[in-house]
Structure formats: structure tokens, C-alpha cells
């Protein structure tokens, strides 16, 4: 993907995307990394990591922004999405469309809780404002909770019960894999993480298919501190493996105060 991005960047002149050069001649043809980052509405550091191969799983909205920034035609856009491990037919607003309407109804009604819908392969299909604020430390990056757990540098400090979160998630993923043996999303996720994380590869070799019973209860949010949530898990028979997680703090607790603070921030966050 990095090679592809560099190649496409080199084909564009600043004038092609409405940027000026101040009349100065450039030594190297093409757009600079910082210019692509601005056009795609991502940080220069994040875009650099994409080109250097240190980040290989942009979310669908970011992949779409990159395609637009680089003025990619349909075939090149599809190629970029495949390189990122994404469905080329996935548009920025279609992830929510994959969530079952019954789960979306519960999500939209969960005004005092963090609620998000997970696909069988742990992609976040939809999240309410509270969940976006709660997960804001991971905004702008990968939208797969299992990849976050195993590959994000801040995951172990954020999820204070990281071993328990990992164990529960792997048990659920294994159960989903048993129920949906032909699910390519699950197969691709396992294949990628087996290469990217030796810890994942080792843990995936063991464990029984027992459902997720505790989710991610305790976290340390950089803006709100320690938060403990009690979760309820909702599923729909029509979409095996798809779950809605709804988490809320105990009334009157310190976590409730922190959660209220996050709720006030929720309008400023974007997952």
C-alpha cells in the first residue's frame, strides 16, 4: 500500500488539486506527504506511517479520503481498498448500514450509555456519541477492536484489564469462526494478526469457543481518567456474530462523573 500511495502521489502536481507552489520550482515531481495528509484530513505522521508500512489498516472513511485526495479513478480506488484489506464497495456511510436495524434502534436509544455494534470480525459498524467519546484515543485509525487490542501502542494502558479483554475477545472470535466458517472477514483478520502480532498468534492457538461475558469494563481515558462500565450484550438471530455492546457506569460513582464529562465532549469527537 505504501508503494501504491507513493506512486499515485508522484503523479499529481499541486495545481491538479488546487494547491499553489508560490512560483517556486520543485526538485521532485508530485505532491508532498504533508500535502496529501492535508487533503485527506489526516495527520502528517499518520500518512507517513501508511507510506512507510508501519500502519496498514486505514478505516473505510480514511481510505475514502485518501482516494479523493489522490484523485483516484474507480479502479485505482478499488485497488487501494483491497490493499488496505477493505471491501472496495464499502463507502463511508455503509458500515452503519451493515448493522441490523434492531441493534441500531437499541444503539440510538442508549442516550446514557456507550453503545456500539461489532461485526463478527470485531469491526465497529456503528457507535453512538458516548461510545465515540469513550474510544476517542483510537479515533482516526483502525476501526477494528481486536486490531486495536493487539497492535495499538496505547491499548495496554487504556484497557487496564487487557489480558481479560483479550481473552474474552478471542473466545468470542473463535465462537464466531465456528458459527461462520466461511466468513472471509474473520479469516482475513486472523491471517493478518497472526503475522502482525506474535502474541495474537500464540493466544489464538488455544482457548475454547465461549462467548464474551465481560467485555471491556475498566479503561483509563486520557481526558477523563479511570472509568468502569457494566456492559450488556445484545444479538439478533438474523445476523449471527453481530453484537451490540451497551456499557454504563454505576449511578453516583466516580466513573459516572467521568462518563458525564466524556458525554460533554462527545459532540467534539469523531470516531
Describe the structure in your own words.
- 47% of the residues lie in helices and 11% in strands.
- The protein has 14 helices and six strands.
- It has helices at 2-10, 33-40, 44-52, 60-69, 74-83, 94-98, 101-109, 129-134, 145-151, 155-158, 162-179, 184-196, 198-204, 254-265; strands at residues 114-118, 124-127, 218-221, 225-228, 230-235, 243-248.
- The protein has a four-stranded antiparallel beta sheet with strand order 2-1-6-5.
- Helix 2 packs across helix 4, helix 4 crosses helix 5 and helix 12 (184-196) crosses helix 13 (198-204).
- The longest helix has 18 residues, at 162-179.
- It is globular.
- The two termini are 23 Å apart.
Give the class from helix and strand content and strand pairing: alpha+beta
- Looking across the biggest beta sheet, what order are the strands in? 2-1-6-5
Radius of gyration: 20 Å
Instruction: Give the CATH class of the largest domain.
Output: Alpha Beta
Estimate the strand proportion: 5-15%
Number of strands: 6
Please tell me the overall pLDDT.
82
Task: Give a brief rundown of this model.
This protein is α+β, with helices and mostly antiparallel strands.
Name the descriptors.
271 residues, Beta-Lactamase, two-stranded antiparallel sheet, alpha+beta, 11% strand, 4-stranded antiparallel sheet, 14 helices, disordered C terminus, 434 Repressor (Amino-terminal Domain), 6 strands, 2 domains
